[in-house]
Amino acid sequence: MEGFPMRTWNISVFLLDEAGNDVEASIFEKVTYKLHPTFGKRATQVFREAPFRIQEKGWGEFDLSVILTAINKGGDHTIEHDLNFASERYEAKHTVTFRNPKPELMERLKDSGPVGDENGTRTKAADSAKKRSRKGGNVDMEKLADGLQRLNEDDLLHVVQLVHDNKSPETYTKNDIENGEFHVDLYTLPDNLVKMLWDFTTSKTEI
Question: How many angstroms from the chain centroid is the CA of residue 138?
Answer without folding.
Answer: 28
